[in-house]
Hints:
The complex is a heterodimer.
Chain A: E1 3-14, E2 25-36, E3 42-46, H1 53-61, E4 68-73, E5 76-77, H2 83-92, E6 93-96, H3 111-120, H4 127-140, H5 145-148, H6 158-171, E7 176-180, H7 188-205, E8 208-213, H8 216-222, E9 225-230, E10 233-239, H9 240-245, H10 250-258, H11 298-302, E11 308-311, E12 314-316
Parallel strand pairs in A: 3-8, 3-9, 6-7, 7-8
Antiparallel strand pairs in A: 1-2, 1-4, 4-5, 9-10, 10-12, 11-12
Chain B: E1 19-32, E2 35-48, E3 52-56, H1 63-70, E4 78-87, E5 90-91, H2 97-106, E6 108-111, H3 125-136, H4 144-157, H5 174-185, E7 192-196, H6 204-221, E8 224-229, H7 232-238, E9 241-246, E10 249-255, H8 256-261, H9 266-273, E11 321-325, E12 328-331
Parallel strand pairs in B: 3-8, 3-9, 6-7, 7-8
Antiparallel strand pairs in B: 1-2, 1-4, 4-5, 9-10, 10-12, 11-12
Helix pairs in contact in B: 3-5, 4-5, 5-6
Amino acid sequence: MAPLLELRGVSKIFGGGMFSRANVTVAVDDISFTISEDNPEITTIAGESGSGKSTMARLLLGVASPTYGTVLYKGKDLNTMTRRERKEFRREVQPIFQDPFESYNPFYKVDHVLHAPAKNFKIADSQAARTTMIEDALMMVGLQPDETLGRYPHQLSGGQRQRVMVARALLLKPRVILADEPVSMVDASLRATILESIQKLNKELGISVVYITHDLTTAFQISNNIMIMYKGSAVEAGSMQKVIQDPHHPYTQLLVDSIPQPDPKIAWGTQTFAGLASEGGGALDGCKFADRCPKVMDICHTQMPPLFQSRPHTVASCFIYQDSEVMENPDIASSFVEQDGIPDVV
Amino acid sequence: MILIETDQAGAGTSVAADDVLVVEDLRVYYDTSQGVLKAVDGVSFSLQQGKRLALVGESGSGKSTLATALMGMTTAPGRIHGGHVYLSGRDLLAMNRGDMHMARLSEIALVPQGAMNSLNPVIRVRKQIIDGIIDHAEGKKPTKDELNERVEELLRTVGLPASVARMYPHELSGGMKQRVVMAIGTALSPKLIVADEPTSALDVVVQRQIMETLGHLQEGLNASVILIGHDMGLIAQFADMVGIMYAGKLVEIGPVDAIFENPQHPYTQLLIQSLPSFNKKTEFNGIPGLPPTLLNLPVGCSFSPRCPFVMDTCKVDEPVSREVLPGQRASCHLFEGDQE
């Protein structure tokens, strides 16, 4: 299984410097993660604000460089790529951002965000061919070209704007799409259509998608595998079905338990827990979740738990599972279930 | 719960004795350069003491405009075009400015959206809490000891240590700021708390804590709550009653169980179907089409262009709200001729 995009032992540390060790924030803490070339999937990275999930996206996009470790695309380190390789990477790994209002320049028509990258990456030989490709991309995400092109961003709804962004990513025929909270600012009734178009890109065009979110309900619907982050570390990862329906790590349990279910008959979770995520997440000994964990043990304060293979296709970084084997391969994606495209209907 | 009977003109009639809030045919319009925008258009409902009503709708459905109007804080270019808002029998919209000023906070309080930005960054928490208490004190001003005691008590009820009183807002986390805003809002034990998306910027774990705190506050005061939001999960867990807004109108209102299990209006049905859940993976069911622009509403029912059950009459006549099931009202031509 050849890796397409790969994080190898990556850490990203903000702040600090030679004389101020106190204010260090470890946004991403020694994570290895691959997106495979052969099996395009939708993978979720989830966590609360401050968990490091957006920093993960920035590292994968190559807009932030790691403090330690390497980011590789098709086996080549992003830092030592040639210009030509870098340009290929830029075309093949496309972002979709959270805010469909800030991704546009209000003075340009929406055509601009489609034509500019199309020209830059020379995806078509002629103006006419380019226009056809743009129209095809818009139709693919469920927009009518004649109702969309020629308009200014403020003339489109949030949902339409976000779909134009999906079309833009699609236009460049990418291998990987990184969607950072693509629906959190869009109305509930329009979320489904955007997620649907992202799912379609994955199924029909074989594009790998990394779906970064705090919303576990949409993640559950769209993807097969999940990685839960807490203060920069992966605390649990593996098959979406198992992680959500029977979470192993106490933090995942808390997170899943806190989600209000849209059914008045399912009572809101009753799990008790202490406090909130403390600021930062610096050089602590032991488990980062120990101060809030209802099942905390003595060992949690002194040692950092490794990822235990707590059951097939799930790893959890918690000493509750210390009798299980420690995950050998540091690559978190190696715990994932392989499925093609369509999630099973239960 | 007795809901107001409305006729075509929307004039309310029966009022139950224990209704804290009665809204009758409320209309809030905005005068814009492109014409009159009807953000809230003929909304009627009532709310009993100690009950929680959630108002749901997409952005632009008029839910926040409605909250602002209840608080008597509608400002130009918005204006109250008509209707009544009775709080314990007194019409808030007919009050003069001074009376409304006194009623605000002491009888009806707002927990605003984005509490992060509702606190003054250069004033300590204590001062921000006592401001309203001093302003509303009639006759003798409270002493410093009384105030300190009250601040401590309020902070305790929202689950904050007394030391927070001496802090500045930037020293608090988002969840703590939201709690301070709730302490300010409930400082004078209001009868009605209007909470406009109180947790929209918070993480799920903090969200649950905040909603539990709001629930405790409300039960402690035996106040009523209007929760404005679009998170159906939150609403299912918190509310007793749910009202669905679409394009400035209240298209359906009823008990929370009935709305989730047996929604009547086609928009509510699609909305409930579109909700993702952990129990099963399904294909995404989005609602086809786009929300209408309020300046250019379709003739007849505003939902008709997106409605799977659309009939000829929907494109001509505006539907009237009628009781479809006990305690559950919907505005849809499908229920015409069923009764009344």
